[in-house]
Amino acid sequence: MTQENKSFTEQLKFNTDGLIPAIVQEHQSGRVLMMAWMNQASLEKTIESGNTCFWSRSRQKFWIKGETSGHLQKVKDIALDCDADTLLIQVEQTGAACHEGYQSCFFRSLQEDGDSLRTTEPQLVNPEEIYKK
Question: What is the CATH number of the domain that holds 57?
């Protein structure tokens, strides 16, 4: 079967655990918001629902982004890289993408000293208010 005859998901190269990395990017600004893992079911649910869904390796369970916080990611585009082993998902982000309350999970950068970190953006929400334990 040629690539042209394969469905989108059949073209993807999931790893030995049945997962594929998904880079999530804000479609307007191009800002990388997060990276998470998807399995076949979470990708299919993302396509079907129009909101991002992932597989948690640490909790070994399916999760819908924003299910608890209300900070949903509305899918605008899903692309695969040239090797078909990574996804790029462009979204319209509502609220914070990061579970620590920041717009992006990439809110820390290496300082010029090459050893310490600095926070590069303000915290949008206190995660304790959203994820009450």
Answer: 3.10.20.810
